[in-house]
Amino acid sequence: MKVNLFSYSLYLARDEMVAEYDELLRQENSDDAEKMRRLLDEVDVLWSHVAVADAVGDYVVTLEKIS
Question: Which of 42, 48, 55, 59 is 20 to 30 A from 10, alpha carbon to alpha carbon?
Answer without folding.
Answer: 59
